[in-house]
Write the structure tokens for this entry.
Amino acid sequence: MGSNLTLAQLGWKPFFDRQVSDVERHDCQPVRVMSVHRGRVSVSGEDFEDSISSSVPHPAGAEDRPTVGDWLLVDRDTRTLVRILERTSLFKRPAPGDDRRLQLIAANVDTLFIVTSCDQDFNVARIERYLVLTREVGVQPVVILTKADLSSSPDSLVETVGALQSGLRVELVNGRDPLSVAGLKRYCGPGDTVALVGSSGVGKSTLVNTLKGSDSIATQPVREDDGKGRHTTTVREMHRLGDGNGDGGGWLVDTPGMRELQMSEVASGVADVFEDVTSVSLACRFANCTHAGEPGCAIRSALDEGQLDPARVERWRKLAQEDQANSADAAARRSRSSKPKDRR
């Protein structure tokens, strides 16, 4: 079984090519992870398509395991995983319900579609969390607002999101209308990779189906009482845009719905997304100001003068504190894992 796609069509770029030695070019096959299953990954390369073990020889840390979008070197003869190539980007989060474990979401993503609907799911704080994650990773964010018919003023929601950060791209679409979503294809040209994130029920799978021109991904209705959806997507998987005859664009990664998104080691992302707040905090009298009543607090002065939105400042404060606490936990985990084990 083999893939009829070239490495370039799969997303291979000079960044990855520079990592491969002459010996590895002879002995190994570059492949990309199309989907992740328990203990195995489905991969595609030039004249290569298979399901292989995801075990990494001599893993060094929590990130040293393949996730969707990764580029791997596979032994040409044994078809076993040799190593994971360095990533251009990696989306990850502390695993829900287990902060000792790291969940890898997707790798080597060029653009992130932050998908939310114009109903009960619309939540500024959640959008900001995704923006922080995106800025920290260094990937272009695009906020996609779906189900405009469920809002009496969808244009005002577009303005609300656009005001969160200068230059932020916001798209209002009908996920079921091919003409409405056609403009999104410009973010996903040949070899590009776009990941979609958002809560269950916002229309991510519907959007992927429409962009692909098929209904291969199952969708489920949203509950009317609270607007929440079921987790239709259970496996992170790459889907190619195009007509299936070799003429296509880039890749879409549909991810399971995430209502809980903890922040960890994203200090620079917080500073970037909340630049209006952090720039004011630099004028505080004390470098370790907690902005809770200390003398000379520039944040408090800006709030009193109406220069900052109190709700936005509170969201910034919450994210910064959460990042600080979770980052400390992450550092502790790395410290424990680096200690030699007692083999007595």
